[in-house]
Amino acid sequence: MAISTALWSFALVVGLLTLTPGLDTALVLRTSALGHRKRALGVVLGIQSGTLAWGALTSLGVTALLTASHVAYEALRYAGAAYLLWMGGRMIISTLRGRGAEGVEVPGAKAHALASQGTDGLAAGWRQGALTNLLNPKMGVFYVAVLPQFIPAGAPHFATGLLLTGVHIVLGLLWSVLLIAFAQLLRGWLQRPQARRLLDRITGTVIAGFGLRLALSD
């Protein structure tokens, strides 16, 4: 298989994966729709940083440990499930207290103080996106199972693995740009506190649902 064929074939596979609605899509849409531009960008960069890490580790053969070691996989799975349940539950609970998650509906000086502490900053979004991706063991298993199949015989394993991962990252960034642009159309509606609470409840339920499914999956 030529390298050009491998790139196009891998792009098709990960393109379909990227377009499938999931946790990343919900997180980017919710953050951007609430007007947190810097945080949304941070979430996108964090998610793609996680993808780069999984791709690099797979190319080095490290993530094969997840498929070889049941204990390692289970530990990462429960850590990821706990994080998603915490994040989703936090969104839902905050709406029941009459405010959006991350201080969205806190007026005036208090909102400014939260923003100055980095609650709505690039770094906070990056941490959230990276943790969401890195604590998902299914990403590691996906890369272990799929990435080696697209590395041509005789090609440098690490360099080709990073090249293929780069294709996944580019597609993810393009899709995220479209999601952010679409989310901007919702901003007028989301100026209302009731709409923001509804979005947080929906997103929180989706994220917690992913966490619960991860915890209960075999």
Spans of at least 5 consecutive residues whose pLDDT stays below 50 are 100-118
Q: SSE order in H/E notation?
A: HHHHHHHHHH
- Percentage beta strand: under 5%
Radius of gyration computed on alpha carbons: 18 Å
How many beta-strand runs?
Answer: 0
- Overall geometry comes to globular
| Discrete helix count | 10
Task: Report how far the terminal alpha carbons are from each other.
Answer: 34 Å
List the quaternary state of the chains: single chain
Mean pLDDT: 79
- Structural class of the secondary elements? mainly alpha
Describe the structure.
With 218 residues, this protein is mainly alpha-helical. The protein has one domain (25-216). It has 10 helices and no strands. It has helices at 3-19, 23-33, 37-60, 64-68, 70-96, 108-116, 122-134, 137-146, 157-184, 193-216. Helix 3 packs antiparallel against helix 9 and helix 5 (70-96) runs antiparallel to helix 10 (193-216). The radius of gyration is 18 Å and the shape is globular. The protein starts with a helix and ends with a helix.
Architecture blueprint of SSEs:
Layout: H1 3-19, H2 23-33, H3 37-60, H4 64-68, H5 70-96, H6 108-116, H7 122-134, H8 137-146, H9 157-184, H10 193-216
Describe this protein with a few key phrases.
globular, 218 residues, single chain, mainly alpha
Question: Nutshell version of this structure?
Answer:
With 218 residues, this protein is mainly α. It has ten helices and no strands. Helix 2 (23-33) crosses helix 9, helix 2 runs antiparallel to helix 10 (193-216) and helix 5 (70-96) packs antiparallel against helix 10.
